[in-house]
Amino acid sequence: MAADLSQIVKAYDVRGVVPDQWDESLAELFGAAFVRVTGARAIVVGHDMRPSSPALSGAFARGAAALGAHVTEIGLCSTDQLYYASGTLDLPGAVFTASHNPAQYNGIKLCRAGAAPVGQDTGLTEIRELVEGWMDSGAPAPAPTPGTITTADTLKDYAAHLRALVDLTSVRPLKVVVDAGNGMGGHTVPTVFDGLPLTLVPLYFELDGTFPNHEANPLDPANLVDLQKRVREESADLGLAFDGDADRCFVVDERGEPVPPSAITALVAARELARNGGRGTIIHNLITSWSVPEVVRENGGTTVRTRVGHSFIKAEMARSGAIFGGEHSAHYYFKDFWNADTGMLAALHVLAALGGQDGPLSSLVAEYDRYIGSGEINSTVADQADRIAAIKAVYGDREDVTLDELDGLTVTAADWWFNVRPSNTEPLLRLNAEARDEPTMAKIRDEALAVIRA
């Protein structure tokens, strides 16, 4: 097909509309290019529940095998289940998913052996260039001896690995509502939670890549409404919501109130530090709450602040030897999970922490949720750089603030901070603000928005 790869090869993955932007013939070329760039003699491949995923995944496997690589297909899997397979088998891997995107989309998340990330700077650009060349000149010549394609089931081993990383022996009985959003959480949660002292109330566990109930994107508050309502109706202890490929997990407390991912990052950081004798480095991006570095310091750890985005987090995890990392978007990274992100492991930590004491989740997380945040507010602008320069002009001469440009522009004062950063894919500026109290946060948020939207 005549495809424009600049539209579907993103910073961290491949993603586009099927069959309009890409199809099985392109997936086969991506499989061949992946093998060529990684030099892999064997790879592991999985897919989510989208209608187009099995065919795309199979085509990718054929392209890889044609160039001589032996392919292990693990079939239906969450993204972190693919990372588990890549890590434990020490093989490069690919999972076919478009995460939380609508049904007509599909994509590929790629990793090297040991779940090491593949992005624009770590192989994805070379993969794109190979595919573009083959689109013009024809598919590459097959290897003298093609690779084999075999199947394996990793779900039980994945679940056992996660449960070995969290002490769940003293968890009291809990009632938990889980909204899988018709995504891969419906595949992984029953096995991971099997045998735990949990009363599981499932919401939308049927695997359905058309997402008939709501988008599988818990970052949008509209997609948490059903979970919040059910938690209150069931008088449950907590609720969990997974995105489409089940690598992110969002938490709501017993009142149905969302728990900020920064509070979950702080809670898990404290537990991981305790597990490591009160020592270790914790990674957080620059728009997580002040609560995170405070809790880490109080528990004996050190922090490293990074740009937003999993490639930066994973690179810093590897460089610093960090034991854990968290992002505002509910991505949670663990050294004991090959530095990869797994919302399921974070969920087990929350269950262990809640079940290891008698109070409700709202009381437990209060010590990790110390400030008032605005959440992420997007503004459409004609010129991103111009608006950031305008903010810099407003705040640059003030003696009571500091400015840094690690990622966009962060303005910090004694009692508040805000960050403005451009979207990489849309004409948007993203604002995040935080303060010690609600009136201050609202004032700073509105001041910044007035400049952004002027």
SSE topology:
Elements: E1 14-17, H1 24-38, E2 42-47, H2 53-66, E3 70-76, H3 79-89, E4 93-96, E5 105-112, E6 116-117, H4 124-137, E7 149-151, H5 155-164, E8 174-179, H6 185-193, E9 198-203, H7 225-234, E10 238-242, E11 249-252, E12 258-259, H8 261-275, E13 281-285, H9 291-298, E14 302-306, H10 310-320, E15 324-326, E16 332-334, H11 343-355, H12 361-366, E17 372-373, E18 377-380, H13 384-395, E19 402-404, E20 409-412, E21 416-422, E22 428-435, H14 438-452
Parallel strand pairs: 2-3, 2-4, 3-7, 8-9, 8-10, 13-14, 13-15
Antiparallel strand pairs: 1-5, 4-5, 5-6, 10-11, 11-12, 15-16, 17-22, 18-22, 19-20, 20-21, 21-22
Domain Alpha-D-phosphohexomutase C-terminal: 376-448
Family: Belongs to the phosphohexose mutase family.
Domain Alpha-D-phosphohexomutase alpha/beta/alpha: 7-132, 157-256, 266-371
Task: Write a concise synopsis of the structure shown.
It is built from 14 helices and 22 strands.
Strand content: 15-25%
CATH fold annotation of the largest domain? Alpha-D-Glucose-1,6-Bisphosphate, Chain A, domain 3
Oligomeric grouping of the chains: single chain
CATH C-level label of the largest domain: Alpha Beta
User: What is the makeup of the main sheet?
Assistant: 7 strands, mixed
Distance between the termini: 44 Å
State the CATH architecture of the largest domain: 3-Layer(aba) Sandwich
Report the radius of gyration as a whole number of Å.
Answer: 22 Å
Shape: globular
Structural class: alpha/beta
How many separate domains make up the residues?
4
Q: How would you name the CATH homologous superfamily of the largest domain?
A: Alpha-D-Glucose-1,6-Bisphosphate, subunit A, domain 3
- Uncertain spans: none
- Number of helical stretches of at least 4 residues: 14
GO molecular function: phosphomannomutase activity
Keywords: Isomerase, Magnesium, Metal-binding, Phosphoprotein
Enzyme class: isomerase
Domain Alpha-D-phosphohexomutase alpha/beta/alpha: 7-132, 157-256, 266-371
